[in-house]
């Protein structure tokens, strides 16, 4: 039981830090999307709930390895191509599919998980 308490303490502290960054940057004011990105999102729903509670609005979440898709989309925009959420989501699914086809040991060694989480998007 003590381990769960300690883990919860770590998630509380980490979620407080993320929320303070979002608040201090002005990221939670206005009508735009609020997105969080990083390997810590792999901690799952309990962590996202804590951030969401502190931020006070829906979050879009992505995992650290998925940042590659953002770079690809920026390049496409710089080339004058239209990109939208459907394109982003298709690229994210394709990335997960490609990773899933790689040897499990290689994925573990490089990305620190056995298989992609298979989810991303909005957490209300």
Offer a quick outline of the entry.
56% of the residues lie in helices and 8% in strands.
Q: What does this protein structure show overall?
A:
The chain has 124 residues and is mainly alpha-helical. Strand 1, helix 2 and strand 2 form a beta-alpha-beta unit. It has one domain. The chain has helices at 2-24, 45-55, 67-78, 85-100, 104-111, and strands at residues 35-37, 59-62, 121-123. It has a three-stranded mixed sheet, covered by helices on one side. The chain starts with a helix and ends with a strand. The model has no long low-confidence stretch (mean pLDDT 89). Helix 1 (2-24) crosses helix 2 (45-55).
Low-confidence sequence ranges? none
Q: Give the tally of structural domains.
A: 1
Distance between the first and last residues' Cα? 29 Å
- Mean pLDDT over the full residue set: 89
Tell me the fraction of residues in β-strands, as a range.
5-15%
Helical residue percent band: 55-70%
Q: How many separate helices?
A: 5
Q: Which structural class fits the helix and strand makeup? A: mainly alpha
Describe the biggest sheet?
3 strands, mixed
According to DSSP, the number of beta strands is: 3
As a whole number of angstroms, the C-alpha radius of gyration is 16 Å
> What is the ordering of alpha helices and beta strands?
HEHEHHHE
- Strands in their spatial order, largest beta sheet: 1-2-3
Net shape = flat
